[in-house]
Amino acid sequence: MAKKMGLGRGLSAILPDVEDVVESVESAEGAKAAPVPADAVISLPLGDIDPNRNQPRKNFDDEALLALADSIRHSGVISPILVARSGSRYTIIAGERRWRAARIAGLDTIPAIVREWDDIKRQEAALIENIQRENLNPIEEAQGIYTLMNECALTQEAVAERLGRSRPAVANLLRLLGLPGRIQSAVIDGSLSAGHARVLAGITDREQQANLFAKTLQFGWSVRQLEAAAKNAPEKKEKVPRAPLPVEYQELQDRLRTATGLKVSMDGSPKKGRIVLQYESEEELQRLWDWMEK
C-alpha cells in the first residue's frame, strides 16, 4: 500500500508522532497494521467533542459530507481525529469533517488521538492543520493565517516557515483581507479568482478598484487582461501632491496593514502626522477590535 500523505510539513514539525499513528490506523484495512500504542487512539463519544471556534473553514460542502458519511457507514472512520482535552470535554484540532460526517452517519463514537496541550499550542496546531489540509478558499486561508499570527504572536516569517511557504506568498494572501467586502465575497463564492483578487488588492484608488472589479465580472477578464487594464487606467491626480514616505515610515505602514488587515495610509513628518485605518465592513472593524484587544 502506497504511503499516504501525513498531516503536512508544518503540522508534523509540532506533532512529530501523530503521522505514524495515523498511518498505522489507516493501514488497518489492508495488510496487518503496525501496533498502535494503547493510549494513542481512543474511542470518544461524539457528544463529548466540540468543534474548534478558530476553524478557518466557515462553510462545509453538504454533498461532500454526505459522501463521506456513506463511506464511514461502510468502512468506519479509518483515520482518527485529533483533539485536545478541555475540562470534561474535547476540542477538535484536526478532523472536523470526519466528526461531522460521523454524526450524519449515526455513529455514537469516533477514534481520536488526545493531546494535553495549552491553548496556544492547540490553536497553532489547529490552524496550521486546517490551512494545509482543507480545500480553503483564499479568503478563508488568509483569515486563518491572520488569526494564527495574532492568536499565537507569530510573524509572517514564522507562519511561512510553519506552512512551508514563502513569506511573499503569505504577505500576498494577507493583502486580500484589505479588499472591500463585496470583492472578498466574490472570491469566496468562486466568481473571482485569487489571481484577480491580488491584482485588485494592489489598486489603492477605491473607485478605480471597484470599476475594474465590475468590468472583470461583466466581461470575464482573465488575470492578464485585468493587469493590463489596471496598468493602463488613468491615474487619479491628488489635489495636494504628497512627498513620498521615508523608508522607515513605509515599513511601519506595511506592518500596520499586515497586523490589522485594513487599508492604512500615513502622511506627515517625524514631529506631526496622521495615520488612517480604513475598514469596509463590520467584520473588518471587528478584526481591528480583536487586534487591539491582543
How would you sum up this structure, described in words?
The protein is α/β, with parallel strands linked by helices and 294 residues long. It has helices at residues 9-14, 18-26, 62-75, 96-104, 119-133, 138-151, 156-163, 167-175, 181-188, 194-201, 206-219, 223-232, 247-260, 282-293; strands at residues 42-45, 49-50, 81-86, 89-94, 109-115, 263-268, 273-278. It has a five-stranded mixed sheet with strand order 1-5-3-4-2. The chain has a two-stranded antiparallel sheet with strand order 6-7. A hairpin with a 4-residue loop joins strand 6 and strand 7 (273-278). The chain is globular, with a radius of gyration of 23 Å. The model is unreliable at 1-39 (pLDDT under 50).
